[in-house]
């Protein structure tokens, strides 16, 4: 794992001067990922904020080869590029060792691109798929996605007299990818850059598909002061709303355990999208309970604690 000093000496592969909002986590995430990946990568990006702000014609902020994609198919495109690379390499027409990275927002990953992503994972392409999860369709005006958490107000789940924000839990996308039994799956956060960089290095070293889901706070959609982006990511981790873990060749591990798990309110009360929760304690409780359940589940998968709530004899265990 390179030190921060070593990383800071590496070339920045996403230039400044792009059109992302000040305080956008997605571009911070890309810089962290590319610092770990280096120059020998081909990047694809699904339509969404990241693609729109980094590739306004005739400019590009990417200093690595970049392929523009439709909203739904970045995993298909990058898997096709990886296949042709393998063929050309077999034929001796390419000698350079290359890696392939697809970036997608949560809309492009959890929702519209899920089929393309699942197919690429099942076919076993050697590519890293990174979801920068800002928990809504931000580029088109903050519409809810299946990654939007319960109780969050968006333009299509407005909190008010009719509903208290989104009424469903967020989809557990990382576990869906782990169920594909691919070599490497992880959750990361830009607040824990060393953990993130290590995970990217691990993922790119795998001879097969990998997936990293990265929390990507968005001050426009989440409604917090723009300078608090990294703090929001950190609170997501410290409340276990966004636990940092990995499933490496089938072995689950928690890669960062908060010293003291903070209540979810430390995360929600800092964001305007959750403002209505103060009038809806039952929705808040439902969100906290679900976070606690998922945290228990991850601990059990990592071999810590026990999910079994019934006495073991009753569950038919003879030991
Ligand atoms: C088939 C299709 N439907 C809708 C759109 C419009 N569209 C472009 S980007 C986008 C939202 C992207 O959301 P997400 O993937 O979460 O990325 P973000 O903008 O939040 O970074 C939508 C709805 C489109 N380009 N193509």
Distance between the termini: 42 Å
Percent of residues in helical segments?
A: 25-40%
Question: Main β-sheet: number of strands, strand sense, barrel status?
Answer: 8 strands, mixed
Backbone CA Rg: 20 Å
The CATH homologous superfamily is named: Thiamin diphosphate (ThDP)-binding fold, Pyr/PP domains
CATH class: Alpha Beta
Question: What is the count of structural domains?
Answer: 1
Written as H for each helix and E for each strand, in order along the chain, the element string is HHEHEHEHHEHEHEHHEEHH
* Tally of separate helices: 12
Secondary structure category: alpha/beta
What oligomeric arrangement do these chains adopt? single chain
Strands ordered across the widest β-sheet: 2-1-3-4-6-5-7-8
Bound molecules: thiamine diphosphate
The CATH architecture comes to 3-Layer(aba) Sandwich
Which helices and strands appear, and what pairs or packs with what?
Elements: H1 4-9, H2 25-37, E1 41-45, H3 49-54, E2 66-68, H4 74-90, E3 99-105, H5 106-111, H6 114-123, E4 128-133, H7 173-178, E5 184-188, H8 193-205, E6 210-215, H9 219-222, H10 229-238, E7 244-248, E8 251-256, H11 265-268, H12 281-301
Parallel strand pairs: 1-2, 1-3, 3-4, 4-6, 5-6
Antiparallel strand pairs: 5-7, 7-8
Helix pairs in contact: 2-8, 4-6
Bound molecules: thiamine diphosphate.
